[in-house]
Specification:
heterodimer, A: about 200 residues, mainly alpha, 5 helices, B: alpha/beta, Rossmann fold, six-stranded antiparallel β-sheet, six-stranded parallel β-sheet, about 35% strand, globular
């Protein structure tokens, strides 16, 4: 991408309801594949809001969240590319090391929290509220991803798509723990569901 | 800008030196730079040139096997770096990062149509110099004087179609009109791999045309802002 002139962000190539995949195909914007990576973009933006709301001294958490943002770009790129296309070879593969690492992070944060005594109301500190929004959007993406993969592959799902799906599953668990952690470090009491 | 750029692995900073400069046309310069020994790239990729804390992306004209790095740059009236690059002394030290981008040739069983406007020809030069020649290459410019690299490209590729948007006593082998006019009038319906590099307007117009007339084709793009 060249930037010698004033850079404009629009090309107008999507005005008729189609968009381009990274692998070159023109597809309808109503395509489930497009919807899934569009919502990953939504999740990534919500994480951006969470990072913006965190106190500057929370550098470990910021680093963690920014790493997740980069991973979501990787997953989006995979979803925007037709499997077995030559363009797939240009992408970083998404390995199970990523969700293994995420599980360890969840466990480490969980260890700092008190035991759960019931369903907690989503909310509390602003950062916790953002994390709960990230959690629910992430769950929605996971459901859509399952539909997309079932529709697209009708059988064996290639490893990196499967890894991406598992990562999204763990990610919503991560945001649940981060929400509780944010309330913990800000001294905000958790409110339980009153039946 | 689309939020779907995959993570690029290489952002190492290299040091280089301006070896030579020549004018290809009234507004276009070619720069020859020292190729650092450890720098490698694929035909079609870009580097990000850095000079006095100004950074700009430029596609490489040279092939990976060539001795030097060659860039083809349109001198833009308001462009800070392009103006400096048209004047700085030979021997000036410059820095760059790269290689960047994914605009590389992907072989397939569909015919490949390369479409460039202006200096958008650069990545295609690198591909042709690297042996990718079984292609149709359209180069859209205003005047015949802007058809730089034609002497090298024309005998190398299967079909070379220079397109002049402001024909004025133009040579007989040039198409009078824009690249989109040529595709509309002369390319039979079918499935192709389109590689588009150049102005946003061209990329928009060709994409609309592909949606209408060449459904099932692939489109790879590199926009020059």
């Amino acid at each position: 991408m060249h930037k010698e002139d004033l850079m404009k962000v629009y090309t107008g190539t999507g005005d008729r309801g189609k968009t381009s995949l990274f692998s070159g195909e023109r597809v309808s914007k109503a395509n489930l594949q497009i919807e899934v990576y569009g919502e990953i973009d939504e999740l990534n933006s919500i994480i951006g809001a969470l990072v913006a709301a965190l106190a500057p001294e929370q550098t470990d958490l910021v680093d963690e969240l920014e790493h997740i943002q980069s991973n979501l770009f990787d997953i989006s790129a995979i979803l925007a590319t037709t499997p077995d296309s030559p363009s797939m070879n240009q992408l970083r593969s998404f390995s199970r090391e990523e969700f293994d690492a995420l599980e360890k992070t969840i466990d480490a944060r969980q260890d700092k929290l008190t035991e759960l005594k019931g369903f907690i109301l989503p909310g509390g500190h602003m950062t916790a509220a953002w994390s709960h929004i990230a959690r629910t959007v992430c769950r929605r993406i996971e459901r859509q991803m399952v539909s997309f993969l079932a529709e697209y592959f009708q059988g064996e799902i290639p490893e990196q798509y499967r890894n991406a799906q598992i990562y999204l599953n763990r990610l919503s668990d991560y945001f649940f723990v981060v929400a509780r952690y944010c309330n913990h470090i800000s001294g905000t009491a958790e409110k339980l569901w009153k039946k | 800008m689309r939020q779907l750029r995959p993570v690029e692995a290489n952002s190492e900073i290299y040091s280089t030196e301006l070896l030579d400069r020549r004018w290809l046309s009234k507004k276009t310069i070619e720069l020859k730079l020292v190729k650092p020994p450890l720098f490698t790239f694929n035909p079609g990729q870009r580097i990000c040139l850095i000079h006095k804390s100004v950074e700009r992306d430029y596609s490489l004209v040279s092939a990976p096997a060539d001795t030097d790095l060659i860039l083809c740059i349109r001198k833009v009236h308001t462009g800070i770096l392009s103006s400096q690059l048209s004047e700085i002394a030979l021997g000036t030290r410059l820095r760059f990062t790269g290689p960047h981008g994914y605009f590389t040739f992907k072989p397939s069983n569909r015919p490949a149509i390369f479409v460039a406007t202006g200096t958008g020809l650069a990545p295609f030069c690198s591909m042709v110099r690297s042996g990718i020649t079984d292609i149709a290459l359209l180069h859209g410019v205003s005047l015949a004087a802007d058809l730089y690299y034609a002497d090298f490209i024309k005998p190398a590729v299967k079909h070379y179609i220079p397109c002049l948007s402001k024909p004025n006593g133009s040579p007989e082998d040039c198409f009078n009109g824009r690249v989109t006019d040529y595709l509309q009038k002369n390319l039979p319906p079918g499935k192709y791999d389109f590689y588009l590099c150049g102005s946003r307007d061209m990329i928009h117009d060709v994409t609309v045309l592909v949606d209408e007339r060449f459904e099932g084709s692939l489109i790879y793009t590199e926009i020059y802002y």
